[in-house]
Amino acid sequence: MTTVEAYSPAGLSGFFATHIVKGDLLRTGAIGGGITLEKGVHVTVKAEPSEKNSVITLLNGKKADMYVARRVAEELLSLTEDCFNLIIDQRIDVPVGGGLGTSGASAIATALAVAKAINLHITYYKAAQIAHIAEILSGTGLGTVSGLVVSGLVLIVKPGAPGYDKVERILVDDSLRVVIGFFSPIDKKKVLGRKDLDKINEIGKEVLNRILDDPTPESFMKYCLHFAKSSGLISKRVLECVETALRLGAIGASQTMIGDAVFALADKDVVENIVEHFKKAGATALESRISWTPARLL
Question: Is the dihedral of CA 275, 276, 277, 282 positive or negative?
Fold first, then answer.
């Protein structure tokens, strides 16, 4: 039996604009901006030759239907004539369903680990493209993988799968931390199916241009909040946490996209106070350094 481990940072989104190309999933995606986190998704794949293919998915060692990882694994298995029994076990460091990119992180980490475990000769970008397509088909994301294969404070300026997209980075001081307060999951399909999505997309495009005119962490956070408010996506409790974080000294705060969660960017000396206030507001609070290392094999 072969055992392979991989890791991907989680990745929150601060704003977006969808870009759908009918019949072309590699050019379908989203522009937007976000931050990759050192907290993320760890994947362990065990592969054993077999007479027919089988895929078992686990979460923290217990059976769970991790359907995005399963879709990725099945696509990779279709690229080889050999058959395998696969056991895919994941450990996720951040809340699921809060706009923190766990599905995309699961997809790319699984793609890398499975490809290595079954000795499939494909490139990193090919694995990332398979992860990107799996996310779209699963309805869990459009552009998350693009950020995870670059990492940092990222701006996706051209949509599409890795290799088709274009991603910029904003320079960030190493002293800054990301503080997250998670309240509850949000069904992305409901948001992406909204009648006013075209209006939201226009706001997202405007925000990207404004940040590109002044590519700083302060500008990024300012316009993420502008997007959250102007789109009507921000919840009352997240807005209250945003105001608290700013009062406590964060350089900026907004809502994760798409999730009922707040994120703040702050110097490490004020992080503890922000975490405590997020907890008092009823959120699951955590803090993380920004990851500057993309999804990778371990």
Answer: positive
Whether residue 46 contacts residue 86, with contact meaning beta carbons closer than 8 Å, is answered with yes
**Per residue in 246-292, pLDDT tens?**
999 999 999 999 889 999 999 999 999 999 999 999 999 999 999 99
Peptide linkage before 156 cis (omega within 30 of 0): no
Q: Could you tell me the end-to-end alpha-carbon distance of the chain, in angstroms, rounded to an integer? A: 17
Asked if residue 274 and residue 139 are part of one domain, the reply reads no
Count of domains forming the chain? 2
Strand order in the sheet with 260-267: 252-255, 260-267, 176-184, 284-289
Confidence bin at 193 (pLDDT 50/70/90): low
Q: What is the pTM of this model?
A: 0.94
Q: Residues for the chain: how many in total?
A: 298
Domain that holds residue 73: 2-167
Q: What CATH number should be reported for the domain holding residue 96?
A: 3.30.230.10
CATH number of the domain enclosing 263: 3.30.70.890
Taking all residues of the chain, what is their mean pLDDT, rounded to a whole number? 95
Average pLDDT over residues 109-124: 97
Does residue 298 belong to any structural domain of this protein? no
- 160 and 230 share a domain? no
